[in-house]
Fold each of these.
Amino acid sequence: MKSLPYFCRGEVVRGFGRGSKELGIPTANFPDSVVDNLPADISTGIYYGWACIGNGDVYKMVMSIGWNPYYKNTKKSMETHVIHKFKEDFYGQTLSVVLVGYIRSEKSFPSLEDLIAAINSDIEEAKVKLELPEHIKLKEDNFFTSTTNSSPVSSSSAASTSQSIINGH
Ligand code: ADP
Ligand code: MG
Protein backbone atom coordinates (compact mmCIF):
# COMPACT_ATOMS: atom_id res chain seq x y z
CA MET A 1 0.00 0.00 0.00
CA LYS A 2 1.68 3.13 -1.22
CA SER A 3 -0.10 5.38 1.30
CA LEU A 4 1.65 3.77 4.30
CA PRO A 5 2.79 5.16 6.64
CA TYR A 6 -0.42 7.17 6.93
CA PHE A 7 -0.71 9.95 9.54
CA CYS A 8 -4.03 11.28 10.77
CA ARG A 9 -5.74 12.68 13.83
CA GLY A 10 -9.16 13.64 15.04
CA GLU A 11 -11.52 13.77 17.98
CA VAL A 12 -12.48 10.52 19.71
CA VAL A 13 -16.23 10.08 19.23
CA ARG A 14 -18.70 7.55 20.62
CA GLY A 15 -18.96 4.30 18.68
CA PHE A 16 -21.99 2.13 18.35
CA GLY A 17 -21.50 0.50 21.73
CA ARG A 18 -20.74 -2.98 20.50
CA GLY A 19 -19.29 -3.73 23.90
CA SER A 20 -15.64 -3.72 22.87
CA LYS A 21 -14.74 -2.50 26.33
CA GLU A 22 -16.57 -5.40 27.94
CA LEU A 23 -14.39 -7.74 25.86
CA GLY A 24 -11.33 -5.99 27.29
CA ILE A 25 -10.54 -4.44 23.92
CA PRO A 26 -11.95 -0.89 23.81
CA THR A 27 -11.73 0.77 20.39
CA ALA A 28 -11.64 4.55 20.03
CA ASN A 29 -13.66 5.74 17.04
CA PHE A 30 -12.77 8.55 14.63
CA PRO A 31 -15.47 10.83 13.19
CA ASP A 32 -16.54 10.55 9.54
CA SER A 33 -14.40 13.56 8.64
CA VAL A 34 -11.26 11.51 9.34
CA VAL A 35 -12.60 8.32 7.76
CA ASP A 36 -13.64 10.17 4.58
CA ASN A 37 -10.04 11.36 4.08
CA LEU A 38 -8.60 7.84 3.88
CA PRO A 39 -6.75 7.27 0.61
CA ALA A 40 -8.47 4.74 -1.67
CA ASP A 41 -5.62 2.23 -1.48
CA ILE A 42 -6.00 1.84 2.31
CA SER A 43 -8.31 -1.15 2.21
CA THR A 44 -10.45 -2.50 5.02
CA GLY A 45 -8.74 -4.81 7.49
CA ILE A 46 -6.50 -4.76 10.54
CA TYR A 47 -3.49 -2.43 10.76
CA TYR A 48 -0.77 -1.77 13.32
CA GLY A 49 0.88 1.50 14.18
CA TRP A 50 1.49 4.16 16.81
CA ALA A 51 -1.02 6.32 18.68
CA CYS A 52 -1.19 9.12 21.22
CA ILE A 53 -3.96 10.94 23.07
CA GLY A 54 -3.60 14.73 23.17
CA ASN A 55 0.03 15.48 23.95
CA GLY A 56 0.51 12.22 25.85
CA ASP A 57 2.92 9.34 25.39
CA VAL A 58 3.04 7.40 22.12
CA TYR A 59 1.85 3.79 22.39
CA LYS A 60 1.53 0.84 20.04
CA MET A 61 -1.91 0.34 18.54
CA VAL A 62 -3.98 -1.91 16.30
CA MET A 63 -6.69 -0.40 14.12
CA SER A 64 -9.65 -2.00 12.43
CA ILE A 65 -10.83 -0.30 9.26
CA GLY A 66 -14.20 -1.77 8.46
CA TRP A 67 -17.73 -1.17 7.31
CA ASN A 68 -19.88 0.85 9.68
CA PRO A 69 -23.12 -1.00 10.54
CA TYR A 70 -24.71 2.30 11.62
CA TYR A 71 -24.71 3.36 7.96
CA LYS A 72 -25.84 -0.08 6.73
CA ASN A 73 -22.24 -0.92 5.86
CA THR A 74 -22.00 1.78 3.20
CA LYS A 75 -19.50 3.89 5.16
CA LYS A 76 -16.17 2.94 6.63
CA SER A 77 -15.21 3.19 10.28
CA MET A 78 -11.76 3.45 11.87
CA GLU A 79 -11.46 1.94 15.34
CA THR A 80 -8.20 2.14 17.27
CA HIS A 81 -7.26 -0.07 20.20
CA VAL A 82 -4.34 1.58 21.99
CA ILE A 83 -2.11 -1.05 23.57
CA HIS A 84 -2.01 0.56 27.00
CA LYS A 85 -4.18 0.53 30.11
CA PHE A 86 -5.69 3.99 30.65
CA LYS A 87 -7.20 5.07 33.97
CA GLU A 88 -10.02 6.94 32.23
CA ASP A 89 -11.88 7.18 28.94
CA PHE A 90 -10.75 9.87 26.51
CA TYR A 91 -13.87 10.74 24.52
CA GLY A 92 -13.60 14.26 23.07
CA GLN A 93 -9.80 14.25 23.11
CA THR A 94 -7.56 14.30 20.05
CA LEU A 95 -6.26 10.92 18.95
CA SER A 96 -3.20 11.03 16.69
CA VAL A 97 -2.19 7.88 14.84
CA VAL A 98 0.19 6.64 12.21
CA LEU A 99 -0.81 3.50 10.33
CA VAL A 100 2.42 1.62 9.74
CA GLY A 101 1.52 -1.81 8.37
CA TYR A 102 -1.21 -4.22 7.42
CA ILE A 103 -1.94 -7.40 9.41
CA ARG A 104 -4.93 -9.08 7.75
CA SER A 105 -8.26 -8.58 6.04
CA GLU A 106 -11.59 -8.35 7.87
CA LYS A 107 -13.08 -11.67 8.79
CA SER A 108 -16.10 -12.94 10.65
CA PHE A 109 -15.47 -15.52 13.32
CA PRO A 110 -17.53 -18.53 14.37
CA SER A 111 -17.57 -17.47 18.03
CA LEU A 112 -16.73 -14.61 20.34
CA GLU A 113 -13.81 -16.65 21.70
CA ASP A 114 -12.37 -16.97 18.19
CA LEU A 115 -12.77 -13.22 17.62
CA ILE A 116 -11.02 -12.37 20.87
CA ALA A 117 -8.23 -14.87 20.11
CA ALA A 118 -7.73 -13.28 16.66
CA ILE A 119 -7.56 -9.77 18.12
CA ASN A 120 -5.07 -10.89 20.76
CA SER A 121 -2.91 -12.44 18.06
CA ASP A 122 -3.16 -9.17 16.06
CA ILE A 123 -1.97 -7.31 19.17
CA GLU A 124 1.00 -9.67 19.58
CA GLU A 125 1.92 -9.27 15.91
CA ALA A 126 1.71 -5.47 16.24
CA LYS A 127 3.97 -5.49 19.29
CA VAL A 128 6.67 -7.49 17.48
CA LYS A 129 6.50 -5.70 14.08
CA LEU A 130 6.63 -2.23 15.65
CA GLU A 131 10.02 -3.08 17.20
CA LEU A 132 11.60 -3.16 13.73
CA PRO A 133 13.99 -0.20 13.38
CA GLU A 134 12.14 1.28 10.39
CA HIS A 135 8.88 1.20 12.37
CA ILE A 136 10.15 2.27 15.79
CA LYS A 137 11.50 5.48 14.29
CA LEU A 138 7.95 6.59 13.48
CA LYS A 139 7.21 6.66 17.22
CA GLU A 140 9.61 9.62 17.43
CA ASP A 141 8.08 11.46 14.44
CA ASN A 142 7.44 15.12 15.15
CA PHE A 143 3.82 14.51 14.14
CA PHE A 144 3.36 13.29 17.72
CA THR A 145 5.28 16.06 19.47
CA SER A 146 3.76 18.98 17.60
CA THR A 147 2.27 21.52 19.98
CA THR A 148 -0.38 22.33 17.37
CA ASN A 149 -1.75 18.80 17.31
CA SER A 150 -5.26 19.78 18.25
CA SER A 151 -6.48 20.42 14.72
CA PRO A 152 -7.62 17.46 12.63
CA VAL A 153 -5.26 16.63 9.78
CA SER A 154 -4.39 13.66 7.67
CA SER A 155 -1.52 12.87 5.38
CA SER A 156 0.26 9.95 3.86
CA SER A 157 3.95 10.51 3.74
CA ALA A 158 7.25 9.02 4.63
CA ALA A 159 8.98 12.37 4.25
CA SER A 160 9.50 14.49 7.31
CA THR A 161 9.27 17.64 5.18
CA SER A 162 5.64 16.86 4.43
CA GLN A 163 5.13 16.16 8.09
CA SER A 164 6.44 19.61 8.91
CA ILE A 165 3.91 21.08 6.51
CA ILE A 166 0.91 19.25 7.92
CA ASN A 167 2.08 20.10 11.41
CA GLY A 168 1.99 23.74 10.43
CA HIS A 169 5.60 24.71 11.09
P1 ADP B 1 -17.50 2.93 21.76
O1 ADP B 1 -18.56 2.07 21.16
O2 ADP B 1 -18.04 4.26 22.25
O3 ADP B 1 -16.32 3.11 20.84
P2 ADP B 1 -15.85 1.08 23.32
O4 ADP B 1 -16.39 0.01 24.22
O5 ADP B 1 -15.22 0.62 22.02
O6 ADP B 1 -17.01 2.13 23.08
O7 ADP B 1 -14.79 1.91 24.17
C1 ADP B 1 -14.03 2.91 23.51
C2 ADP B 1 -13.61 4.03 24.43
O8 ADP B 1 -12.84 3.51 25.53
C3 ADP B 1 -12.68 5.00 23.73
O9 ADP B 1 -13.39 6.00 23.03
C4 ADP B 1 -11.85 5.57 24.89
O10 ADP B 1 -12.47 6.74 25.41
C5 ADP B 1 -11.87 4.45 25.93
N1 ADP B 1 -10.61 3.71 26.05
C6 ADP B 1 -10.01 3.39 27.25
N2 ADP B 1 -8.88 2.69 27.05
C7 ADP B 1 -8.72 2.55 25.71
C8 ADP B 1 -7.70 1.92 24.91
N3 ADP B 1 -6.64 1.29 25.44
N4 ADP B 1 -7.84 1.98 23.54
C9 ADP B 1 -8.93 2.60 22.99
N5 ADP B 1 -9.91 3.21 23.70
C10 ADP B 1 -9.82 3.19 25.05
MG1 MG C 1 -15.32 1.42 19.92
Amino acid sequence: MALLIIGSQRSEEFASAAREQVPDLDIRIWPDTGPVEDIRYALAWGPPVGALKRFPGLELIISVGAGVDHLMKDPELPGVPVVRYVDPDLTGRMVGYIALNVLMHLRRMSEYLEQQRQRTWRYLPEPAAHEVRVGLMGLGVMGKAAAKGLEALGCQLRGWSRTQKTIEGVECFAGQESLDAFLSGTDILVCTLPLTPDTRGIINRDLMRKLSRHGRHRRMPGPVLINAGRGALQIEADILAALDAGELYAASLDVFETEPLPASSPLWSHPRVVITPHNAAESTPEAISRYMLRQIARHRAGLPLENIVDPVRGY
Ligand code: NAP
Ligand code: GLV
Protein backbone atom coordinates (compact mmCIF):
# COMPACT_ATOMS: atom_id res chain seq x y z
CA MET A 1 0.00 0.00 0.00
CA ALA A 2 1.46 3.34 -1.03
CA LEU A 3 0.48 6.93 -0.32
CA LEU A 4 0.53 9.46 -3.12
CA ILE A 5 1.08 13.16 -2.38
CA ILE A 6 -0.18 15.27 -5.23
CA GLY A 7 -0.97 18.84 -6.26
CA SER A 8 0.98 20.78 -3.63
CA GLN A 9 4.22 22.73 -3.83
CA ARG A 10 4.88 21.48 -0.31
CA SER A 11 4.66 17.75 -1.12
CA GLU A 12 8.25 17.07 0.03
CA GLU A 13 7.61 18.77 3.37
CA PHE A 14 4.43 16.75 3.89
CA ALA A 15 6.31 13.55 3.00
CA SER A 16 9.14 14.29 5.48
CA ALA A 17 6.67 15.03 8.27
CA ALA A 18 4.74 11.80 7.54
CA ARG A 19 7.98 9.76 7.46
CA GLU A 20 8.96 11.15 10.84
CA GLN A 21 5.72 9.79 12.24
CA VAL A 22 5.72 6.46 10.30
CA PRO A 23 9.28 5.81 9.03
CA ASP A 24 8.47 2.82 6.81
CA LEU A 25 5.53 4.49 5.02
CA ASP A 26 5.76 4.01 1.23
CA ILE A 27 5.26 7.56 -0.11
CA ARG A 28 5.24 8.56 -3.76
CA ILE A 29 5.23 12.19 -4.85
CA TRP A 30 3.46 13.11 -8.08
CA PRO A 31 4.46 12.68 -10.89
CA ASP A 32 6.92 9.96 -9.70
CA THR A 33 4.19 7.54 -8.77
CA GLY A 34 5.82 4.18 -9.62
CA PRO A 35 3.32 1.45 -10.61
CA VAL A 36 -0.13 3.07 -10.47
CA GLU A 37 -1.74 0.00 -8.90
CA ASP A 38 0.38 0.45 -5.72
CA ILE A 39 -1.45 3.64 -4.73
CA ARG A 40 -4.15 3.20 -2.06
CA TYR A 41 -4.29 6.68 -0.48
CA ALA A 42 -3.84 10.19 -1.81
CA LEU A 43 -3.06 13.39 0.10
CA ALA A 44 -4.14 16.06 -2.36
CA TRP A 45 -4.41 19.83 -2.64
CA GLY A 46 -5.01 20.81 -6.28
CA PRO A 47 -4.23 17.77 -8.43
CA PRO A 48 -4.27 18.10 -12.24
CA VAL A 49 -7.76 17.40 -13.55
CA GLY A 50 -8.10 13.68 -14.32
CA ALA A 51 -4.90 12.71 -12.47
CA LEU A 52 -6.53 10.79 -9.62
CA LYS A 53 -8.56 8.52 -11.88
CA ARG A 54 -5.30 6.88 -13.02
CA PHE A 55 -4.99 4.89 -9.80
CA PRO A 56 -7.27 1.85 -9.97
CA GLY A 57 -6.63 0.80 -6.35
CA LEU A 58 -7.26 4.22 -4.79
CA GLU A 59 -9.42 3.87 -1.66
CA LEU A 60 -9.33 7.27 0.00
CA ILE A 61 -8.51 10.90 -0.80
CA ILE A 62 -7.45 13.20 2.04
CA SER A 63 -7.62 16.93 1.32
CA VAL A 64 -4.70 19.08 2.42
CA GLY A 65 -7.22 21.85 3.08
CA ALA A 66 -10.53 22.30 4.83
CA GLY A 67 -11.85 23.52 1.48
CA VAL A 68 -12.18 20.91 -1.25
CA ASP A 69 -13.12 23.04 -4.28
CA HIS A 70 -9.72 22.20 -5.85
CA LEU A 71 -10.75 18.54 -5.80
CA MET A 72 -14.45 18.92 -6.59
CA LYS A 73 -13.72 20.76 -9.84
CA ASP A 74 -12.34 17.50 -11.31
CA PRO A 75 -15.22 15.96 -13.29
CA GLU A 76 -13.34 12.65 -13.31
CA LEU A 77 -12.66 12.51 -9.57
CA PRO A 78 -12.83 8.82 -8.54
CA GLY A 79 -15.89 7.88 -6.51
CA VAL A 80 -13.92 7.07 -3.33
CA PRO A 81 -14.46 8.95 -0.04
CA VAL A 82 -12.88 12.39 0.22
CA VAL A 83 -11.98 13.46 3.74
CA ARG A 84 -11.39 17.16 4.32
CA TYR A 85 -8.91 18.56 6.82
CA VAL A 86 -10.36 19.52 10.20
CA ASP A 87 -7.95 20.00 13.07
CA PRO A 88 -7.60 22.28 16.11
CA ASP A 89 -4.28 23.51 14.72
CA LEU A 90 -6.00 24.78 11.55
CA THR A 91 -9.08 26.09 13.34
CA GLY A 92 -7.01 27.96 15.93
CA ARG A 93 -5.07 29.69 13.17
CA MET A 94 -8.29 30.80 11.49
CA VAL A 95 -9.73 32.15 14.74
CA GLY A 96 -6.53 34.15 15.21
CA TYR A 97 -6.76 35.59 11.69
CA ILE A 98 -10.40 36.58 12.13
CA ALA A 99 -9.94 38.13 15.59
CA LEU A 100 -6.86 40.02 14.39
CA ASN A 101 -8.66 41.48 11.39
CA VAL A 102 -11.88 42.34 13.22
CA LEU A 103 -9.80 44.25 15.78
CA MET A 104 -7.63 45.75 13.04
CA HIS A 105 -10.60 47.52 11.51
CA LEU A 106 -12.66 48.36 14.54
CA ARG A 107 -9.53 49.96 16.06
CA ARG A 108 -8.87 51.71 12.69
CA MET A 109 -5.33 50.35 12.56
CA SER A 110 -4.83 50.85 8.80
CA GLU A 111 -5.43 54.57 9.37
CA TYR A 112 -3.15 54.67 12.40
CA LEU A 113 -0.39 52.92 10.45
CA GLU A 114 -0.77 55.52 7.71
CA GLN A 115 -0.66 58.28 10.33
CA GLN A 116 2.50 56.72 11.78
CA ARG A 117 4.15 56.85 8.35
CA GLN A 118 3.21 60.55 8.23
CA ARG A 119 4.34 61.13 11.88
CA THR A 120 0.80 62.35 12.61
CA TRP A 121 -0.62 62.24 16.15
CA ARG A 122 -4.37 62.30 15.63
CA TYR A 123 -7.17 60.69 17.58
CA LEU A 124 -9.81 58.80 15.58
CA PRO A 125 -13.18 57.82 17.07
CA GLU A 126 -13.52 54.04 17.47
CA PRO A 127 -16.40 51.81 18.46
CA ALA A 128 -16.09 49.51 21.46
CA ALA A 129 -16.16 45.82 20.54
CA HIS A 130 -19.57 45.43 22.20
CA GLU A 131 -20.99 48.09 19.85
CA VAL A 132 -19.93 46.18 16.73
CA ARG A 133 -22.10 43.60 15.00
CA VAL A 134 -20.02 40.90 13.32
CA GLY A 135 -21.82 38.77 10.73
CA LEU A 136 -20.32 35.33 10.15
CA MET A 137 -21.05 34.01 6.65
CA GLY A 138 -20.60 30.29 7.15
CA LEU A 139 -21.28 28.65 10.51
CA GLY A 140 -19.28 25.47 10.04
CA VAL A 141 -16.11 24.47 11.87
CA MET A 142 -14.44 27.83 11.20
CA GLY A 143 -17.47 30.07 11.64
CA LYS A 144 -18.47 28.49 14.96
CA ALA A 145 -14.93 28.68 16.34
CA ALA A 146 -14.66 32.31 15.22
CA ALA A 147 -17.91 33.04 17.06
CA LYS A 148 -16.36 31.75 20.31
CA GLY A 149 -13.25 33.87 19.81
CA LEU A 150 -15.20 37.00 18.96
CA GLU A 151 -17.61 36.45 21.84
CA ALA A 152 -14.59 36.65 24.14
CA LEU A 153 -13.80 40.06 22.62
CA GLY A 154 -17.37 41.15 23.35
CA CYS A 155 -18.65 41.63 19.78
CA GLN A 156 -22.34 41.22 18.95
CA LEU A 157 -22.67 38.14 16.75
CA ARG A 158 -24.93 36.94 13.98
CA GLY A 159 -24.36 34.15 11.49
CA TRP A 160 -25.65 32.84 8.19
CA SER A 161 -25.54 29.28 6.89
CA ARG A 162 -27.34 26.99 4.46
CA THR A 163 -29.23 25.11 7.17
CA GLN A 164 -30.58 26.65 10.37
CA LYS A 165 -28.30 26.61 13.40
CA THR A 166 -28.84 27.29 17.10
CA ILE A 167 -25.71 28.72 18.68
CA GLU A 168 -25.76 30.43 22.06
CA GLY A 169 -24.91 34.10 21.74
CA VAL A 170 -25.27 34.11 17.94
CA GLU A 171 -28.37 35.29 16.09
CA CYS A 172 -28.65 32.66 13.37
CA PHE A 173 -30.03 33.11 9.85
CA ALA A 174 -30.31 30.43 7.18
CA GLY A 175 -30.82 30.27 3.45
CA GLN A 176 -31.07 32.74 0.62
CA GLU A 177 -34.39 34.11 1.90
CA SER A 178 -32.80 35.43 5.10
CA LEU A 179 -29.57 36.74 3.58
CA ASP A 180 -30.76 40.35 3.34
CA ALA A 181 -31.93 40.40 6.97
CA PHE A 182 -28.55 38.98 8.03
CA LEU A 183 -26.62 41.60 6.04
CA SER A 184 -28.74 44.53 7.16
CA GLY A 185 -27.60 44.06 10.78
CA THR A 186 -23.92 43.40 9.98
CA ASP A 187 -21.14 45.97 10.45
CA ILE A 188 -18.22 43.57 9.86
CA LEU A 189 -18.82 40.69 7.47
CA VAL A 190 -16.55 37.67 7.97
CA CYS A 191 -16.72 35.05 5.25
CA THR A 192 -15.66 31.44 5.75
CA LEU A 193 -17.98 29.94 3.15
CA PRO A 194 -16.78 27.07 0.98
CA LEU A 195 -16.62 27.63 -2.78
CA THR A 196 -19.48 25.78 -4.49
CA PRO A 197 -21.68 26.58 -7.49
CA ASP A 198 -24.09 28.27 -5.02
CA THR A 199 -21.52 30.53 -3.40
CA ARG A 200 -19.33 31.57 -6.36
CA GLY A 201 -19.37 35.38 -6.72
CA ILE A 202 -21.62 35.86 -3.67
CA ILE A 203 -19.50 38.78 -2.37
CA ASN A 204 -20.54 41.28 -4.99
CA ARG A 205 -21.57 44.95 -5.09
CA ASP A 206 -25.21 44.17 -4.47
CA LEU A 207 -24.34 42.21 -1.31
CA MET A 208 -21.97 44.91 -0.03
CA ARG A 209 -24.65 47.58 -0.50
CA LYS A 210 -26.92 45.58 1.81
CA LEU A 211 -24.52 45.77 4.77
CA SER A 212 -25.59 48.03 7.62
CA ARG A 213 -24.88 51.74 7.44
CA HIS A 214 -26.14 52.22 11.02
CA GLY A 215 -22.77 51.28 12.55
CA ARG A 216 -21.81 54.91 11.95
CA HIS A 217 -23.96 55.90 14.93
CA ARG A 218 -21.63 53.79 17.04
CA ARG A 219 -18.43 55.22 15.54
CA MET A 220 -17.91 52.47 12.90
CA PRO A 221 -16.66 54.44 9.88
CA GLY A 222 -18.51 52.04 7.55
CA PRO A 223 -18.97 48.33 6.80
CA VAL A 224 -15.96 46.01 6.67
CA LEU A 225 -15.39 42.83 4.67
CA ILE A 226 -13.08 40.02 5.81
CA ASN A 227 -12.82 37.10 3.37
CA ALA A 228 -10.90 33.99 4.42
CA GLY A 229 -13.06 31.54 2.43
CA ARG A 230 -12.06 31.38 -1.22
CA GLY A 231 -11.16 34.03 -3.78
CA ALA A 232 -13.85 33.03 -6.26
CA LEU A 233 -16.50 33.95 -3.68
CA GLN A 234 -15.63 37.61 -4.29
CA ILE A 235 -15.77 40.00 -7.23
CA GLU A 236 -12.66 42.10 -6.73
CA ALA A 237 -13.71 44.92 -9.06
CA ASP A 238 -16.87 45.26 -6.97
CA ILE A 239 -14.88 45.40 -3.71
CA LEU A 240 -12.73 48.22 -5.09
CA ALA A 241 -15.78 50.07 -6.39
CA ALA A 242 -17.55 49.68 -3.03
CA LEU A 243 -14.47 50.99 -1.18
CA ASP A 244 -14.20 53.96 -3.51
CA ALA A 245 -17.91 54.72 -3.20
CA GLY A 246 -17.72 54.59 0.62
CA GLU A 247 -20.03 51.56 0.70
CA LEU A 248 -17.20 49.68 2.39
CA TYR A 249 -14.83 51.25 4.88
CA ALA A 250 -12.13 48.57 4.70
CA ALA A 251 -11.38 44.98 3.72
CA SER A 252 -9.07 42.16 4.78
CA LEU A 253 -8.60 39.65 2.01
CA ASP A 254 -6.69 36.40 2.40
CA VAL A 255 -7.95 34.79 -0.82
CA PHE A 256 -8.20 36.09 -4.38
CA GLU A 257 -9.78 35.43 -7.75
CA THR A 258 -6.25 34.71 -9.04
CA GLU A 259 -3.56 33.47 -6.68
CA PRO A 260 -0.89 34.69 -6.27
CA LEU A 261 -2.59 38.10 -6.50
CA PRO A 262 -1.13 39.70 -9.66
CA ALA A 263 1.27 42.60 -9.04
CA SER A 264 -0.99 44.74 -11.26
CA SER A 265 -3.99 44.42 -8.90
CA PRO A 266 -5.08 47.80 -7.45
CA LEU A 267 -5.94 45.95 -4.23
CA TRP A 268 -2.22 45.90 -3.32
CA SER A 269 -2.01 49.66 -2.94
CA HIS A 270 -5.43 50.45 -1.50
CA PRO A 271 -4.83 52.17 1.87
CA ARG A 272 -7.60 50.29 3.67
CA VAL A 273 -7.16 46.82 2.20
CA VAL A 274 -5.14 44.29 4.19
CA ILE A 275 -3.73 41.53 2.01
CA THR A 276 -2.35 38.18 3.17
CA PRO A 277 -1.17 35.35 0.87
CA HIS A 278 -3.86 32.73 1.55
CA ASN A 279 -2.41 31.91 4.96
CA ALA A 280 -5.34 32.70 7.26
CA ALA A 281 -5.05 29.08 8.34
CA GLU A 282 -2.08 27.10 7.13
CA SER A 283 -2.02 23.30 6.92
CA THR A 284 1.33 22.69 8.56
CA PRO A 285 3.23 19.53 7.54
CA GLU A 286 3.21 18.14 11.09
CA ALA A 287 -0.50 18.66 11.72
CA ILE A 288 -1.78 17.57 8.29
CA SER A 289 0.44 14.46 8.37
CA ARG A 290 -0.81 13.51 11.81
CA TYR A 291 -4.40 13.98 10.65
CA MET A 292 -3.85 12.05 7.41
CA LEU A 293 -2.20 9.13 9.20
CA ARG A 294 -5.11 8.98 11.65
CA GLN A 295 -7.62 8.80 8.78
CA ILE A 296 -5.60 6.08 7.03
CA ALA A 297 -5.36 4.11 10.28
CA ARG A 298 -9.13 4.42 10.79
CA HIS A 299 -9.79 3.30 7.23
CA ARG A 300 -7.52 0.27 7.62
CA ALA A 301 -9.16 -0.65 10.92
CA GLY A 302 -12.62 -0.44 9.33
CA LEU A 303 -13.59 2.53 11.55
CA PRO A 304 -15.76 5.35 10.18
CA LEU A 305 -13.83 8.14 8.49
CA GLU A 306 -14.10 11.68 9.87
CA ASN A 307 -15.14 14.84 8.00
CA ILE A 308 -16.25 13.13 4.80
CA VAL A 309 -17.18 15.51 1.98
CA ASP A 310 -20.67 15.30 0.54
CA PRO A 311 -20.03 15.32 -3.23
CA VAL A 312 -23.53 16.61 -3.94
CA ARG A 313 -23.23 19.65 -1.63
CA GLY A 314 -19.62 20.07 -2.75
CA TYR A 315 -18.19 20.76 0.72
P1 NAP B 1 -17.63 23.71 6.96
O1 NAP B 1 -17.51 23.22 8.36
O2 NAP B 1 -18.03 22.78 5.90
O3 NAP B 1 -18.63 24.98 7.00
C1 NAP B 1 -19.13 25.57 5.85
C2 NAP B 1 -20.25 26.51 6.24
O4 NAP B 1 -20.70 27.20 5.08
C3 NAP B 1 -21.47 25.76 6.82
O5 NAP B 1 -22.03 26.50 7.87
C4 NAP B 1 -22.42 25.73 5.62
O6 NAP B 1 -23.80 25.66 5.96
C5 NAP B 1 -22.12 27.06 4.99
N1 NAP B 1 -22.57 27.07 3.58
C6 NAP B 1 -22.17 26.29 2.57
N2 NAP B 1 -22.84 26.59 1.45
C7 NAP B 1 -23.70 27.58 1.78
C8 NAP B 1 -24.70 28.31 1.07
N3 NAP B 1 -24.95 28.06 -0.24
N4 NAP B 1 -25.41 29.25 1.74
C9 NAP B 1 -25.18 29.48 3.04
N5 NAP B 1 -24.25 28.83 3.78
C10 NAP B 1 -23.53 27.90 3.15
O7 NAP B 1 -16.25 24.35 6.48
P2 NAP B 1 -15.11 25.03 7.39
O8 NAP B 1 -14.21 23.98 7.94
O9 NAP B 1 -15.73 25.99 8.31
O10 NAP B 1 -14.30 25.80 6.26
C11 NAP B 1 -14.95 26.74 5.47
C12 NAP B 1 -14.08 27.22 4.32
O11 NAP B 1 -13.02 28.02 4.83
C13 NAP B 1 -13.38 26.13 3.53
O12 NAP B 1 -14.24 25.55 2.58
C14 NAP B 1 -12.26 26.91 2.86
O13 NAP B 1 -12.69 27.42 1.62
C15 NAP B 1 -12.00 28.07 3.83
N6 NAP B 1 -10.69 27.97 4.48
C16 NAP B 1 -9.76 28.90 4.15
C17 NAP B 1 -8.55 28.87 4.76
C18 NAP B 1 -7.53 29.95 4.48
O14 NAP B 1 -6.38 29.79 4.86
N7 NAP B 1 -7.92 31.03 3.85
C19 NAP B 1 -8.24 27.87 5.69
C20 NAP B 1 -9.22 26.93 6.00
C21 NAP B 1 -10.46 26.99 5.39
P3 NAP B 1 -24.40 24.37 6.70
O15 NAP B 1 -23.80 24.43 8.10
O16 NAP B 1 -25.84 24.62 6.72
O17 NAP B 1 -23.96 23.18 5.95
C1 GLV C 1 -7.11 26.45 3.03
O1 GLV C 1 -7.38 27.27 2.23
C2 GLV C 1 -7.98 25.39 3.40
O2 GLV C 1 -8.99 25.18 2.72
O3 GLV C 1 -7.69 24.72 4.40
